[in-house]
Amino acid sequence: MPQHSQATDQDLRLLDAYWRAANYLSVGQIYLLDNPLLEQPLTIQHVKPRLLGHWGTTPGLNFIYAHLNRVIARDDLDMIFICGPGHGGPGVVANTYLEGTYSEIYPEIARDRDGIRRLFRQFSFPGGIPSHAAPETPGSIHEGGELGYAVAHAYGAAFDNPDLIVACVVGDGEAETGPLAASWHSNKFLSPRIDGAVLPILHLNGYKIANPTILGRMTDEELLRLFEGYGYEPHFVEGSDPALMHKAMASTLDIVIDRIQEIRRASREDGAASRPRWPMIILRSPKGWTGPKEVDGLKTEGFWRSHQVPLSGLAQNPAHLALLETWMRSYRPQELFDESGQLIPELQALAPKGTLRMGANPHANGGLLRQELVLPDYRDFALDVPHPGGSNGEATRAMGELLRDVIRLNADARNFRLMGPDETASNRLDAVFEVTERVWMEDILPEDVHLAAEGRVMEVLSEHLCQGWLEGYLLTGRHGLFSCYEAFIHIVDSMVNQHAKWLKVSRDLPWRQPISSLNYLLTSHVWRQDHNGFSHQDPGFIDHMVNKKADIVRIYLPPDANTLLVVTDHCLRTYDRINVIVAGKQPAPQWLDIDQAMAHCAAGIGRWDWASTEGDEEPEVVMACAGDVPTLEAVAAVELLLAHLPRLRIRFVNVVDLMTLQSKTEHPHGIEDDHFAALFTRDKPVIFAFHGYPQLIHRLTYKRPNHDNFHVHGYREEGTTTTPFDMVVLNELDRFHLAIAAIDRLPQLGAAGDRARRLLQGRLAEHRDYIRQHGADIPDVADWSWPSRGTAASFD
Amino acid sequence: MPQHSQATDQDLRLLDAYWRAANYLSVGQIYLLDNPLLEQPLTIQHVKPRLLGHWGTTPGLNFIYAHLNRVIARDDLDMIFICGPGHGGPGVVANTYLEGTYSEIYPEIARDRDGIRRLFRQFSFPGGIPSHAAPETPGSIHEGGELGYAVAHAYGAAFDNPDLIVACVVGDGEAETGPLAASWHSNKFLSPRIDGAVLPILHLNGYKIANPTILGRMTDEELLRLFEGYGYEPHFVEGSDPALMHKAMASTLDIVIDRIQEIRRASREDGAASRPRWPMIILRSPKGWTGPKEVDGLKTEGFWRSHQVPLSGLAQNPAHLALLETWMRSYRPQELFDESGQLIPELQALAPKGTLRMGANPHANGGLLRQELVLPDYRDFALDVPHPGGSNGEATRAMGELLRDVIRLNADARNFRLMGPDETASNRLDAVFEVTERVWMEDILPEDVHLAAEGRVMEVLSEHLCQGWLEGYLLTGRHGLFSCYEAFIHIVDSMVNQHAKWLKVSRDLPWRQPISSLNYLLTSHVWRQDHNGFSHQDPGFIDHMVNKKADIVRIYLPPDANTLLVVTDHCLRTYDRINVIVAGKQPAPQWLDIDQAMAHCAAGIGRWDWASTEGDEEPEVVMACAGDVPTLEAVAAVELLLAHLPRLRIRFVNVVDLMTLQSKTEHPHGIEDDHFAALFTRDKPVIFAFHGYPQLIHRLTYKRPNHDNFHVHGYREEGTTTTPFDMVVLNELDRFHLAIAAIDRLPQLGAAGDRARRLLQGRLAEHRDYIRQHGADIPDVADWSWPSRGTAASFD
C-alpha cells in the first residue's frame, strides 16, 4: 500500500528537464573548454584538444540518479549511490554539481557560468579530475575503474546501517566479471533487521567497448530466472522513448521502495526470520542514449560505438563539430540554466536537501561517522613466557581472544566485522564465537554451529567478497579485519591495488575524513601447509604490497603470540592504511613476555640479547630473522652453532615491522642508516631467515650499509604435502642450513668450522632420512625447545 | 531416443562394488601405512603418524567417476574428468589406480597388495604425492587446490575438441567463488558444431570446512532457476541411500549423454544455429558419505565434521581406531580384491579400456596431442625503419598482422585462440578480424561486427575466464595468447601462481609431455592510460612473476614494433613457460630494422651504438632502458644531454629480455657478470629508465657489479587522467628528469653541468605549465623525433 504520491506528468516533465541538464553537463565535460552555455555558436576553439571520456553509460546513470532523487526527496530516504560503471564519471560529477554538493566541496566550481566552464575544463584534463567516479567525486565510495566490486561494496556499506539504502548500479560489462557474479549471493548475508538495503540496478545498455555483453543479449526470461535464482525479485524497465521510460522508471521505483519498506517492516515489526526476496531493477536503455544516432553512417546510439567519445577528430571534421553542437543543443540548455549559468529554481527544487543529497550523504565519506573502536587491554590475553622459549602457544588463538573482546566491547556500536573464507575456526580465532555468530540468512538446521541471522563474523568461500564487503564497511566508517590463507590473498591483489589507490588519493583531499585501516591477518601460511601442500604456498602478497605508496602500507611479521597481540592492537587503532599481519596458528615456542613484546614491537626491529653471544665485542656473524617459523629456525641455528662452536660471537636480530628495513627516505618506518649499521654491522656476514621470498629482503635493503653481506634464506618455491620441518629443509630455511650458511661465511673458523659443517650436514641427512621413512619429523626437531639459558652471557 | 542399454540391477550392484573399492582405497590412503587389505586386525602400528587428507568430498567423487566409467565403456565416449573439489585427491588417485592407469605410469604402485600398501603410504607423505588432484595425478589437467577454475578449465579443454566430453565436478564450496560464478556463462562461447561438450556436475554436499555452503542450502527451486538462468538444463540427483542413488545417477547420466548427442546432431547434421541448453547434473549427496555417522556423539556423515579426517587422535583413542576398522571393513574389501590384492576381474571389467580410461585420455596430457604451430615469417610484417627513429608505428598493430597469419596458417588445425577482455581491437590487434571472428553464441544483430558462432578470438569482460579458458586450452595441447590491459592482469595473479606451480611439477614428470607456453601480451600499459587514469595503472605483474621458478618465467619489454615481432615469434615456439610481453599500442618512434631487432632480441640486452657517444673511450655515464616509453624518454634524454654537453661520453643500453639482468645462477637467461660489467661498467653511474616499479631492477641486479651506481626511474604510483608526457613527468621518468639525473651523478661536469641542469629544469617547468594550460603536450615533446644522426661518431 504506497504511502506516498506517485509522479504526475508535470513531475516527469521536470524530471526529464533535470535529466537533460545532467546529460548536457556530461557532454560538456567530455568536449568543452569554453562557451559552456553555448551562448555563442560552437567553434573548434571551444573544444578540448584531447577528447577523453566515456559517453556510453552516462545518460543511463543520469536517468537513474534523477529518479532516485525524486524518491529520496519525497520520502526523506537515507541513500547512497554506487556507480559500478567505471566510465560514468561525467554523470556522477554532473549530478553532484546539479544538486549543489560539488560546489560546496570545490567552491571554485561555482554554480554559475564560470563554474560550469571550470567543471567542463577540469574533466580528464591535466591537473583536473579523473574520468571515473573516484575519491574526488562527492558521494562516491567506489572507484569503478576496474569493474567487479560494486555489489560487494554496496553490501559492505549496508551492513549495520539499518536505515540506509544503497543504490548500486551495475553495468552489463561489469556483470561479466567473476567477483560481480559471486556478489549477487551477498543477499544470503544481509539481515533486514539490523542491516540496510541494497537496491541493485542492473543497467543493461548491451555493449562493452566493442562487443555486445552476455547479460545484455540474454532474454528477459533467462535474466528473470537467473536473478530469481540468485534470490532477487527483478523489475524490468525497458525502452528508449524518454517519456515512456520516465513513467516506467518512476512507477517501478515506487514499487521497489515500497517493497524494501515492507521487508523492513516484516522483519523489524513482525519478526519475519527468513531471507526476503529483495527487489532489484533491470534497466535496459540504449548505450549512448540521446547521443548521435549515427556518425559517418554507422549506428552509434544504442551500439558500442558510443562507448567513448562518439564524435572525434573535430578539428579536421566540421560536420562532426556541427553534430556535436546539434547534440548539445538538443538538451535545450537555455531552458535549464539561467543567464548566469544557475540551474533554474524549478529544477534545483527537485534535488534532495542537505545530507539527503547523495553527494553529501555522510555514509559516503565514512570518516565523518567513524567512531573509535573500544579496545580491550591486550595484556589480558598475554601468554606467560617465563623465559624465551619457556612456553608454547598458538599465536592466532591469543589474537582470537583479543578479537572476541573487541567484538564484545563494541557490540552495541555494531561497527566491527571479521571476514574470512570459512577459516575463522580453522585459523584458531574461534574465541570470537563465545560472543557472536557467523552471519547466515539461509535455513539453519539443528546440527548447525554458530550460525545466526545476525553476527559479527562473515564467512564465504570468496576472497573477493570478503575483501569487497570489508572495503565497503570501512569506507562507510566502520572497522574490520580479514583473516585469510596467506597464499590465497593473491586472489584480491587487484582489489587491494584499487583500495591502495583510493587511500592515496583520499589522503590528499581535505574534505575526505580518514577511515579505518584495512587489516589483514595472513595465516595458515606458506610454512605450515601440512595438509594442502604446494598449491597453498605463496608468501608473495607482501611483495605485492611494498609496491604501493609507502604512507599506505605496513607489514608485520610478529614472531610469537605476544608480539601478535601488540601488533593487532596497534593496527586496529590506525587509519587510512593497509596493515598486513603474517602469523601462524600452530603451537610454537614463545619468545617474549608481553612487556618485551611491547618494547620490541615499538622498535619494530631489535637485537635479542638472550639469543646473542657477542658480549662486549663486535659479533662475528649476525643471525637475523623475520616471521615465526624463521625465528624458530634461527634460534635453533644459534643453538646448533654454539653447540659446535661455543666461542662464536653471534648477534641475533629479529624484525617485526618489515618496513624498518627500508631506507628512511623510502618509508616512514625505515630506521636510520646508522641504526641499521649498528644492528647489522658494517662488514660482518648477516644470515637472514625470512618468511617470504628472499629477494624481498634484498629489495628492501639494497641501499643499506653492509647489504652485500646479506645472505637471505626464504621460500624458494619448493614444497609439497610434507612435514613442517621438511618444508623448511626443502627451502634451506632450516636450522642446519642456516648454521652451515653462517659457517660458510666465516673462513676464520678454519678446521673447527669444517668439522662443525660436516657434523651439521650429517645431522641434516639423518633428519631427511627419518622423515622419508617415518613420515614425521625426528623427535629432537619436532619437540625442540630452546633451553632456558637465562642471559646471553651464560653461553660462554 | 536412447540408443543404448540402460543399467540393470546387476550392473548397479557391480557399480556399487566398484564404488566401495574406490572408497576403501580412499580411506586407506588417508589412514594406513600398512595392512592394506585389512588381513590382520587393525592396530595403531598400521596407521600413519600424521593424518593428512580430506575425506568429505571423496565418496561423491568416487560415485561420479564410477558412473561416468559406465557410460564411457558402453558408448566409447571420449571423456576427461576435471575434479574441482581440491581435496578430492584420494578419490581420483583411487580411481585411476582401479582402472589401471596409475600402475602403468607408476609401476612401483603395482596392482597387488604391496602396490596398495605403497599407494596408501605415499599419499600426503613426505616424498609422496599431494592431497589434491595434481600434475602427478593421471588424467588431471587441474589442480583443484585453490578452487574457482574448474569450469573455465573444462570449457578451455572442450574448445576445438568436437568429440570430447569434459565432465567437470564443481564442489559447492568452489561454487561460491567469483571466477566459478562467472564461468557458468562460458556456454555462450561454445559452438556445438566445432567444440566438445562440457558436462558440469555441481556436487552439493552442503558444507565447506566449518560452514554450510550457499548453493548447498538453496532450495531446488532456486537452484533450478539460477542454472536455467545461466542457460543450462539442470538434472537433479539427490539422496543418500546408495541403491537408490545408483539408480538415479545411472538413469540421469543416460539422459544427459543422450541430450549431448542430440545437441551435437542438431548442430552438426541439422545445422541448428542457436545456443543450445546444455544439460548439467546437480548431485546432492552427504558430505563424507558412507563414513562414520557420528564421532564422539557429534554428527559427522552429512556434516562439515567429515571435511578432513573424521577420526583422529587414534593413538590416544582406541575407540576411534576401532571405528576406523569398522568403517573400512564396511566396504568389504575381501569381496573386492583377491588374495594378491588385485581388483577382482568382474570389477576390472567395468573400467573403460586403453585411452578411453579417464586417467589415460591423451587430452589430459595435452603435450601428447600438441602439434607445432605453423608460423609465418615475421619479417613479412616488419616496419621499415630507415634509421633509428626514422619512422613511426604502432607495435601491437604489427603484432596483430603476425597473429592474423598465425590464425590463417593454422585455421585447419584449429589449435590457436586469442583471448582478451574485449580489447582485441582497442589493443590494435584487429588485423586478426580479416581472417576470423569473435566467438559469440548469442543472437547476432545486423549491426554487429565480427561476431560468429565460430572464431579464434574470445572476448569476455573477465580476465578470470580468459585465463582459465586459455589454461584449459593449453593443457589439452593447443596454443594461444592472452592480450590484456597491463594493470588488470593482476586479477589473475593467483591463477597464474597455480599454473606456474603446475608447470614446475609437470616438468619433473617424465610422462607429462610439454605443453605450449602461456603467452601474455600486456598492453594499454601504465604509461598510456590517457583515458582511464590512475585506476588503470599498475606495472607490477612482472614483479609478481619473477617470484616464480626461473625455468618457468620469461619477461620481454620490446622497445618497438620489430622487436615485438621477434619476441612474439619466439614466445609462440616455446613450451612449458609463462611468457610475459609488455608492449604499447600507441604510435611511437621505431628504432630497429628487422635485422637489428633480431640480433638485439637474440642477445636480450645490448648497447645501441647509434645512441651512444663513447667513441673509443669508456663512457662517463650509462643511459639504460627497458620498455617502449622509457626507451623513447632515454633516447630523448641523450639528445638533451648532448645538446647541452656535446662532449659527454654516454653509453646507451637497451634491455628486451628482463631476465638477462638477473645473475646467471638465478636465471638461465642471466648474462655473465663480465658481460654485465662490460655493458654497465664497473664504476660509472647508470641511469636506468624502467617501465615498471624501480625496485624490480634493483632486485634483479643487487648481486651485480656496479649495482650501487644504478639509479632507476620508473613508476612511482603517481598518475591520473593526463597527457602521456605528463605521466612520465609525474613519475620522473621523462627525458628532463633522466638527463638531470645523469648530470647529478657527474660532478666532474662542474659549471657546465650546473648550467645544463638549470636549462633542463627550466624547460621542464615550461612543459608543465603548457600542459596545465592547454591540456596537451607542448609540440616539441609531442612531435619529438630522433634526428637521423647516422652513426654515434657524428655526435661529437
TrEMBL record, chains A, B:
Gene Ontology molecular function: fructose-6-phosphate phosphoketolase activity; phosphoketolase activity
> InterPro entries of this UniProt entry?
Phosphoketolase, THDP-binding, Transketo_C/PFOR_II, Xul5P/Fru6P_PKetolase, Xul5P/Fru6P_PKetolase_C, Xul5P/Fru6P_PKetolase_CS, Xul5P/Fru6P_PKetolase_N, Xul5P/Fru6P_PKetolase_ThDP_BS
On whether Oxidoreductase is a keyword of this UniProt record, the answer is no
E.C. no: 4.1.2.-
Which CDD domains does UniProt cross-reference here? TPP_PK (cd02011)
Family to which the UniProt record says this protein belongs: Belongs to the XFP family.
Alphabetic keyword roster: Lyase, Thiamine pyrophosphate
Q: Which organism is it from?
A: Inquilinus ginsengisoli
All copies of domain Xylulose 5-phosphate/Fructose 6-phosphate phosphoketolase N-terminal, residue ranges: 8-368
Q: Say if the entry is tagged with keyword DNA-binding.
A: no
In terms of NCBIfam families, this protein maps to: PRK05261.1-1, PRK05261.1-2, PRK05261.1-4, PRK05261.1-6
Query: What protein does this entry describe?
Result: Probable phosphoketolase
**Start and end residues of each Xylulose 5-phosphate/Fructose 6-phosphate phosphoketolase C-terminal domain:** 585-786
